[in-house]
UniProtKB/TrEMBL annotation:
<feature type="compositionally biased region" description="Polar residues">
    <location>
        <begin position="186"/>
        <end position="209"/>
    </location>
</feature>
<feature type="compositionally biased region" description="Low complexity">
    <location>
        <begin position="940"/>
        <end position="950"/>
    </location>
</feature>
<feature type="region of interest" description="Disordered">
    <location>
        <begin position="936"/>
        <end position="962"/>
    </location>
</feature>
<dbReference type="InterPro" id="IPR025157">
    <property type="entry name" value="Hemagglutinin_rpt"/>
</dbReference>
<feature type="compositionally biased region" description="Low complexity">
    <location>
        <begin position="278"/>
        <end position="292"/>
    </location>
</feature>
<dbReference type="GO" id="GO:0003824">
    <property type="term" value="F:catalytic activity"/>
</dbReference>
<feature type="compositionally biased region" description="Low complexity">
    <location>
        <begin position="898"/>
        <end position="915"/>
    </location>
</feature>
<feature type="region of interest" description="Disordered">
    <location>
        <begin position="174"/>
        <end position="209"/>
    </location>
</feature>
<protein>
    <recommendedName>
        <fullName>Hemagglutination protein</fullName>
    </recommendedName>
</protein>
<dbReference type="Pfam" id="PF13332">
    <property type="entry name" value="Fil_haemagg_2"/>
</dbReference>
<feature type="region of interest" description="Disordered">
    <location>
        <begin position="898"/>
        <end position="918"/>
    </location>
</feature>
<feature type="region of interest" description="Disordered">
    <location>
        <begin position="264"/>
        <end position="292"/>
    </location>
</feature>
<feature type="compositionally biased region" description="Polar residues">
    <location>
        <begin position="951"/>
        <end position="962"/>
    </location>
</feature>
<feature type="compositionally biased region" description="Polar residues">
    <location>
        <begin position="264"/>
        <end position="273"/>
    </location>
</feature>
Amino acid sequence: MVSNSVKQGLASSLNRNFALIESNVKKAVNSRDLILSSIPDIVNSQLFTINIKKDDVVSSDKGGLVGSTAVSIDTGSLNSSLSSISSEGQVSINASDEVNFSSSQLDGSEVDINANRANINTILAVNEEGDLTSVSKTKIDGESSVNINTSDDLNIQNSDITASAENSQINLNSQNGDVTIKNDHSTSSSFTQEEIGNNVSTSSTQSDTVLSSNISADNVSISAKKDANVVSSNISSTSQQGSIDINAQNVNIADAQESVKIQNEEYSSSPTEINHKNSSLATSTSQGSSLTSQNTININASNEVKITGSNIQAQNSANINAENISVNNGTTKMASSSQASNVQVTGFRQTSQNVESSTVASSNISANNELNLNAKEKVDVKGSNLKGKETNINANEVNLIAAQNQTNTQTNSLGIGIFANANLELAGQGISANYSYANQTANTKKLDSENGITQGGLRSDLFGAGEVGVEFISTQKITNEATHVSSKLEGANINVNSSNTLDIGGANLSASKDINLKAGEIKSTKYADTKTQSSTGFTLSVKEKLESVSPLASFANQISQNFSSKEKGLNPNLAITSVQVLSNTVNILSNNIVTGKSNQTIGFKFEQSQSSSSKENITQISAGENLNISSTKGNITLNGTNANADNISINSKKDLIMNAAKSKSSSSNLSIDASITNRQTAGYHIIDGGVVGNEVEFFANGSYSKTKEDKFSNTTLNANNNVSIETKNDTILNGANVNANNVNLNIGKNLEVNSLVDTSNSEKYGGTLGGTISGAFSSNHIATGSVSGMVGVGYKRSDKAEVSSQSGFDAKNEINGVVGENLSLKAGILNSQISSGNLEVAKKVLESDIKTHEKSDGATVRVSGGTSKSFGVVIDIEDHISKTGSANSASNININGGKNLSTDTQNTQSSTDSSWAGGTINFSTSVTKVKDAVNNIRGTNSNPTSNTNTMHVNETTETTRL
């Protein structure tokens, strides 16, 4: 029951039309606190008014107040938790201190809250499933208006405020503090396990979900003495006559992160195989704020407006005014990890991969009419998009910046298992079949002279090989990649004005009509996409390999190699061809016609490679009608820019500099392998007949290579009608092209047109060392033994310098203009498609060409010899490429009324080619063997007939006949 003292206190302060329904009161604490607990809704009253002393507290816990005409509360503080205050009329709350609403409902025709501080939020609690989630989201609904005014901070979290009547109004105001509208987070988790036979899988998920605040009315006004913050929340103006107005010292419209963590594990087994997999994935996704208006959006800050990963959309116009404005992207992050292992009859394999990435979540600001960004100091737009019918930016400094995506991937693998390969090749054509459990590969492919088993000619006598064995492989690969997302400006017209600096390098601009760029100085910073890779691996193997070799195969392969060079436009070198014919003749006479080899090999191989590349972005500018670029103080610098319009006009207070975008790449590779082989051979020789032998071989090989490449992509100005360029000082084209119907130039000082050179070079070095201990038997000889060794060295170098695209001016009609000082053409071109126009040059006309070249050569030499007089040489000579040339300047328009330069603007590059084809020479014999072959043909023998006590040595096969 309500105590008499409380009854008397209420009765003295309540209007006579108020009816109090008695109920148990949880507690009434002296005269300063009134706690309404478990009181049913107070109903059937015309007016409900509570007036309490300034320092008193009204608390409502799971209670409700209802006044059919109005509800008015005046108190020191008000705390409402899981409660409601409702009226068909006005709800008015005045607190001299603090107002707190938690999971409460307020509704009336008008809702007015005045307090020193206000906190509006929603209670989070754990539900039956164990998830942390909202308990009865706080909602404030004023049919015609909601007005919340505080002296200090106004905080709204995970709550909804609405006004639904026509011309409705929401006013959120902090006279001396901040207004913050932000999200909260709910969390949930799940776990599942499934078992089917010998397969067991488990999965767990943890989620952190954004719970946004929502503000909605025909008109929404937010004002703060200090900061106005909107974090992962939504504000909407629902009327075509309405607006969103935000005014503060600083305005922050930002995103929040929504995260998910997933872990999976799977185990399966069968009589022949066991698999185990586990993986984890963690994502953090940008959830931006949203401001939408059916009419206008106005954001004003005396200091800074900062927009991050959020969307602003106005059906009419959007206006942002501040000292500084920054429109930034948000970031979505991902981290994944996976491990897998497999055991089966053919081997064991284990792999792991870790990936971390961050990707751009762009901010978007759009208006169907005008979009205006006005800053007294600086406007930064990073990885974000601006779109309006009229898109206007005005500031002291404007920076259009590209945002960056990043990915880091690390992969490790470890495996031991069976492998098998089979290869057939002859005359430069063949087929290969490969299987490797450790590498998880199984394929077939065609072979040619570039990827064949003959190793580019070093083993030109090999025509068939097959192997099977067990290998242990360990590899590690790391990849780091960065790409860029350019900002975008779109509209029917785009106008950017900066009294100081304008940087357009990180943006793309597109307008259906005009683009006007005006600044004290205009520049274009470049953003390079980069990629680096490094890999390390080693292999241990034990294998059985069968090979078939023949000097006849060597002869056929070398003929095929020469024909292939001819098809590539390289004439065979007669000296190499002659030596090939001689060496093949000797090989056929002094070696087995065909030999089969069985090899048992233990081998080791180590490989390491690194590569890097970078490519600068291209700024795209597209205007349906006119593109106007002007500077009022300094230079205009266009780096890596592609501009298109009907008409292009450039006016620079100082210099105009147009530079090409640059890309570059480099790589290096190191490879070392060694093996020990026990080999059995069987073959047929035209003199010795059947031959069998055995040998033990040691082999080691190493190689190192590196490449480097630099290329340019020219800046281009393309106009359907006219290009007009006016500079007070110099105009410099360093890798640039200007294309138009007419080109008009007014250059205060010097005009330079410079073409740029693309370069590439590569180097490769290798070395080989081997040794053999052998013995053999033949059908008419008794074997002896020998020791032999082999050493080999090789190199290959290439160097190329070319002009892929010459700089210059190209007009369908005329090129006309004035150059105040010198005209300098470095492989530059002035071309009129009708050979018309005139350029008045006050001082000198300077022209020069650029030398170009392409060079490539190399060779590998392997020399072998033994304790007998046998020896062998394998020489593989690379194609010799030698091209020299030049890129020349040319002009087919008049310069000072005459044509003093080359007028052939279509054939400005020339070259001389003195290349020739390489080839392979494979030579193996001995002096005695050659004599035996010649005498055999004559019907004699180089040695006298021996008795049983004499001995004849065959120095090639290292066999001895008694």
